[in-house]
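Hey, resending since the last one bounced:
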Amino acid sequence: MFGSILVALAISIGAPGEFQGSSAVDQPVLVDGRLVFPEGARIPKYMTENELRYLDGNLITPPRGQSAPPLGPVRGASEYEEMQGILLAWEGFSSTLAQMAAAITTTGNADVYIACDSNSEANSARNSCISAGADPDRVITVVRSTNTVWIRDYGPRYVFEGDCRVIIDHTYNRPRPSDNAYNSYFGSAFNHAVYEIPLVHGGGNYHLNGIGTSAATELIINENPSLSGSQIIEYWRQYQNVETYLHDAFPTSVDYTQHIDMWMLMCGDERIIISDWPTQSGSTQDQICDAAVEYYEGLGWEVFRTPAFAQGGTHYTYTNMVVCNDVILLPEYNDISNTYDNQAVVAVQAAMPGREVVQIVCDNLAYSAGVMHCITMHMPAHAGGIYPTTCLQTPVEGIVDPNDCPQISYISDDDEFDVVSVDIEYSTDDGVTWQTLQSNLAPQGVATVCLPDTPTNQGRLRVLARDGDGNTGGDVSGPIIIEGDGVEGDVDGDGDVDVSDILEILAQWLCQGDCSADVNGDGSVDVADVLLALANYSP
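The structure tokens again:
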């Protein structure tokens, strides 16, 4: 067991002295047996020497607080679909972050949500972004402590549960407690449900498209030695509704993180960008990338290639880019020929036409074993536009006993995170009219709902949310059938015999066999059914 712990840790170990430009790399300080992360320090993405000393051979293990998977229908959110915003953490690399914020909030037409340790830091971050050209109305600071800039690895992984955005949170594979605690705070602050998946990993070792395909490297197995690859894949299936392929990981001599986002980007439902190694053809990393190309082409995907290099202990990659609506933030490097920068631009424009490519110098990030994708997390756009959405997580449909009181759970979402109340409503006529059963409930919760004893085969339950602007929207259940003694001649099941029932009998006139308008049950629709309905007529 102890040997497997050391192997799992060694997978992500970096050696600061081996990095070209390593003077730009910092590490936390050990003080009285605890780790202190200096403000503004450029903590690298890999596990630092002091963090290894702090762990002292122990493995970070989940669950931090495992929760059951989402109850409603789940769809993973891809990075190439419409985004509401990009999450950043103001921890070192401030010039790069400000440039990114400027492009995201203008060309990208999205918000930036910047984690800041204090109000003064929030003011400084905001001013820096605005000075770099960011839209002031789209710079949103979140005052909550973080340890590092690498929010891709610890930040909120968004999926849709029904039409509501929810967060799937894993245990961060680094001893960085403020980072690891960030998602529970962020979900609470923005009224998004948080689900704890019992996996240790870094979010950069994961990519997915919008139709249920995802990928990671086998690093995930080393980080979770008590689980098999199939068990890990099953967790992602349960929590995110994806089918995951585990690729070979790069050697740590090439990439200390062994994360898949350092050499791959899914840029469409069946489109992908994969690194190529023009100066290191036949190398292990080149073989891994070529094998991935063969795999995805075998699935019928369109594959695009961008150059990549490993030199002086630094991995220079272009696939570690940020896609946000109409903008692509693409790395460029001063340390290598701009010929390769230009080749990357051409490949990316071919893979994602119609988006503007903005190049940002990323050598200092690369020295720390990551690039721009590693310091961002995506928040997809709200599914309902300006109208709130809800998800009725507990199915209520089919035959329900009269006066049954099912317990339901629900969540809600809004484009401005501003659901102020939720009502539970019921219809006996397939949603033509509604009656309120409960009102002014919390934006998410559990409610016991007693359905009226009104026979119907057109019942519906609705969870209706209302935002601060008065907009409403909500999720409607499947058909509910409430059986009872009923009224003879009541064809539509609304509890009365009226004109609509007479018209339905006439519409099914001379129907033989199983006919809903055969109210006397003699196997045909005829004058006897009309007479029975008229005898009980009560509009």
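The first strand starts at residue 29 and ends at 31.

Sorry for the duplicate.
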